[in-house]
Write a structure and sequence with these properties.
The chain contains 13 helices and 21 strands. A seven-stranded mixed β-sheet has the order 12-13-14-11-10-16-17, sandwiched between helices. Helix content is about 35%, strand content about 20%. The relative contact order is 0.14. The structure holds 2-aminohexanedioic acid. 2-aminohexanedioic acid binds next to loops.
Length: about 500
Amino acid sequence: MSLTSVGFDRTQLTMGDIASHSPIDGHLLGRVSSTTVAELDALLTQSVNAFHQWRTVPAPRRGELVRLFGAAVREHKKELAELITLEAGKINSEAAGEVQEIIDICDFAVGLSRQLYGLTITSERREHHLLERWHPLGPVGVITAFNFPMAVWAWNASLALICGDSLIWKPSEKTPLTALALSKILNNVCASFSDAPQGLSALIQGDRSIGEHLVKDPRVALLSATGSTRMGREVAGQVASRFGRSLLELGGNNAMIVSPSAREDLAVRAITFAVAATAGQRCTTLRRLYIHHSRYDAMVARLKKAFSSLRIGNPLADDTLVGPLIDESAFNAMQKALAAAKAAGAHITYGERVPVTHLEGGFYARPALVELESMVEVCKQETFAPILYVFRYEDLSDAIKENNGVAQGLSSSLMTQDLSESERFLSAEGSDCGIANINIGPSGAEIGGAFGGEKETGGGREAGSDSWKAYMRRQTQTINYSADLPLAQGVKFDIE
Ligand code: UN1
């Protein structure tokens, strides 16, 4: 089964102002056209109409649509993964993992479609009862980044659909084709699903200007955005000014602490994966490492060895572990950050461009290990590239303070065999991040938990647990089945 069976054939995508280039070697993969403001306006009108119908379809039936979508994604797993590799540069196994996340979240959403539970609450009044019910919210705008060009939309889409909402997706202009292919799969499933209204799921393409129209439009009830903190700050302000809702998943600056009792093999593997996976372009990528001074020299030596042996090259080849950065500007940003660290006194190992035969148009880099005495300005920013800043620490409470000492608050981890250290890290005075792990790295979260972070990461939660509540509106209902009208708080108001 190929993607042409769902109406996606990138060899036919030869027209349009947005060019998609493969980060593997820079070759042109295809072209699509930017959505115009007038087209977006029409799509939003359709989306509102679709929402009005979809919200009346019973939730388990809505779940059936998501089940069929998940089944179609299963059928096309290999081709979708290959497209992710071509357009985002991920190695095969990570690309397949991303498609697996779509399948997993669909399964999760199907089950959830029978569990959109509200509460019953005891009333203070005789013969009254209180309920809390969850109703569909409205059209959901989803803005996604290039680094998870399918899964992050699917986290949003699967939950929004079972919650009774319609969808408008604005993918990164760096990954328009993955978005097109995945949307086609959903639209095909919708076309043969009698209860799915026209326009239930729409795709718009373009740069930030079309994104801004989406963000500002009051018809978009929830705007879910993944990207930089700078982008999120603008989105948050604009959505708040129209009293819309936003769900933000912004920058991370994730740390790991390696304590005296850490298992060395496990730590080296966890660190190397968390730095190098997706070529350092995950929001959960490990960026800062705090090693107990007693373990520092041995650990750093092992990490240098591990980084030097990483197979960097064509992500389509089975034995490659690190693919290319998304483009030249990502490579330049990496070099700029390394230069700033050097100027601040860092000792840098690796980080250079790696030439790959026949793939001269791609930007491949060996992950950099940057040793510093203490945090300098550049370590406080998220540079979307494989750079690991490494520090020594003496006392766990100092390391936790450092872990928390940046503006971002997505993910964190501690490698330890010491229960009291682990409990301290996970306690109220421990990590201040949305995700805190013990004996695994900060990246590679499962979909079952709520995903997201605090502070400048934006505070949103997507995927598992009760993240679905963001896609619905809560209604408190009070029902009086008595013949009287007692007032709450014992208020008396007797009229003649
Ligand atoms: C992202 O980088 O935007 O936890 C999402 C992880 C992946 C998702 C990352 N499951 O690393």
